[in-house]
Amino acid sequence: MKKELIYIFIILLVFYGIHGFPMDMETIRGIATIDVNVHDSYYVVQSHYYWIITLSFAFAITYLIRILLLKFKNKYANIIYLITNAAFIVSLAYVIQFLNIIIEQYSEKGLATNSTFYTYFYITTALLLFSVIMEIFVLFKMWKK
Predict the structure, then answer these.
(1) What is the pLDDT of residue 32?
(2) How far is residue 13 from each of residues 7, 51, 79, measured CA to CA in Å?
(3) Could you read off the pLDDT of 65-96 as tens digits, one per residue?
(4) Lowest pLDDT segment from 8-12, 43-47, 68-72, 110-114
(5) Which of 50, 70, 73, 100 lies at 20 to 30 Å from 2 by C-alpha?
(6) Which is nearest to 84 in space by CA: 129, 121, 52?
(7) Are 25 and 97 in contact (CB under 8 A)?
């Protein structure tokens, strides 16, 4: 268990090293926002949603690699992967819903939707399906032992 805590701490340090530590109270409390500019519209997303999605993605990917290299022998790594992957699946569902709303609004107004949205939508859906399949596979491997 100590090794897993050190591994989690290293992932957090690398994550915050890349994205930067939150230095002001607006970022810590979640008041800060991220603006997404789409043609003439702005979509405002609170920054803590961005942090949750990217952090759950970082944990899910690193622990997926870890459990595949360890061949599912470390029980704690498997459990941490299942929890972080479940959080990642939930966050991907919200991202898909957000992209679907944008695509519907543009089609209702008769505006041409940029193909980038469809690309993001398909990539996010494929990532969601892959995550669900891997979640079931790891659960099966843990149950089989």
Answers:
(1) 67
(2) 10, 14, 21
(3) 999 999 888 889 999 999 999 999 999 998 88
(4) 110-114
(5) 50
(6) 52
(7) no
Distances 76 to 8, 22, 29, 72, 105 between C-alpha atoms, Å? 12, 29, 31, 10, 44
DSSP bridge partners of 41: 38
Region 47-64 average pLDDT:
84
Residue 49 has pLDDT above 70, yes or no: yes
Residue type, 132: V
- The C-alpha atoms of residue 118 and residue 141 are separated, in whole angstroms, by 34
Cβ–Cβ < 8 Å for 131, 92: yes
Torsion 87-54-91-65 (CA) sign:
negative
28 near 46, Cβ under 8 Å? no
Q: Which two tokens stand for residue 39?
A: 């043609």
Q: Which of these, 134, 51, 38, lies nearest to 91 by C-alpha position? A: 51
Quickly count: other Cβ atoms within 10 Å of residue 131's Cβ: 19
